Amino acid sequence: MNSTGPLDNPASYAVIGAGPSGLAAARNLQRFDIPWSGYELAAGVGGLWDIDGPRSTVYESAHLISSKRTTEFTEHPMRDEVADYPSHRDLLAYFRDFASTHDLASGFAFGTEVISARPEGEGWVVVSEGPDGRVERRHAGVIAANGTLSEPSVPTFEGRFDGEMFHTSAYKSPTVFAGKRVLIIGAGNSGCDIAVDAVHHSASVDIAVRRGYYFVPKYLFGKPSDTLNQGKPLPPRIKQAIDSRVLRMFTGDPVRFGFPKPDYKIYESHPIVNSLILHHLGHGDLSVKPDIRRLDGDAVVFADGSRTAYDVIVLATGYHLHYPFLSPELLRWAGHGSAPDLYLNIFTQEDPNLFVLGMIEASGIGWQGRYEQAELVASYLRARSTAPTAAHALEERIAGPRPDLSGGYHYLGLERMSYYVNKDAYRSAVRSEIERLR
Questions:
Q1: What is the rounded distance in angstroms from the CA atom of residue 296 to the CA atom of residue 316?
Q2: Average of per-residue pLDDT across 148-173
Q3: Residue 244, phi then psi, degrees to nearest 5
């Protein structure tokens, strides 16, 4: 393996991924005059929002579930003519414009997959596979920003299904449902989006769920719903009580459409930002089914003993965190079912030159939350030379107890919630650390 090319700089930090988090990393390292080199599997920037990317999981009808003003990078607002809830095409154009404005694309090796990254001596060795074959390069450290929505979580079921079965990660167009009997397993945001797509093409659509959900419309009182209550955060109990009542006013009780009653309070799991599925349930365009008991040839047997025939099953069963190029021990990670044990979901106490960006999920945190993560990493790297006492103090906190980032909410004990945070508590903690490093 050779080490050649413009990205070879042993003093640079390797940024893995050119989606929102990777671009935030590159931009903040640039702002702080810290050398960096980027790796991206796709042909350009945008991450999963490039529908043609090799690991993109978006589909033709995909739009943001948060509004543009609560999602955009603060230093790079989306254009006024862009819709409140942009499509994947709008978002790819946005990221390309962000990268062009700050000349970030020139720092990435595109069409290049990172095979492994390991600490060696005082730095890191990154092995990648790209147009020049397998290449080994040395870097000062690694910033893993490869996203959280690329590795499908595919459950196993008792029995056999004779029809077509695929995960939402493989879904692109509703034409695959033309004239078919469709079952969607799981009612997350993607599952509900695809159910709404399917009703316009399929012979029938059912959606199978284990638990109840809270459904939030994209507009409340004529405004994007996530732009309301943007001031000082309310205490959890008060916010849960108020917002539950408001939702009932606008969407009614999902139980009457066939969903189970939620066994948790609102915001203790990520809400479903889709009221169209309730619209179609109310019109008889689809039906809610209970959990799966087993597959049965051309049909599915449900937990209540009922049996229904289908042609297609769609697994809307979420994603696993995926850092295949890193040793799990470096992340203090037990693997699927949990999240790496990182301070502020960024720093590992196993190596001071390894950072993870984007491993956060929170209602309303937007890409600015990821940008602030990147600003904190860049601030720490600069402080190691300009404010070593402050940098060392952060290192001691990294090795200490983890702060409470829940904001007082009691999140469900699910894999997808294992890296969930409260946006206000999290951003406050990150900003506080940035201030301490100045």
A1: 20
A2: 97
A3: -60, -40
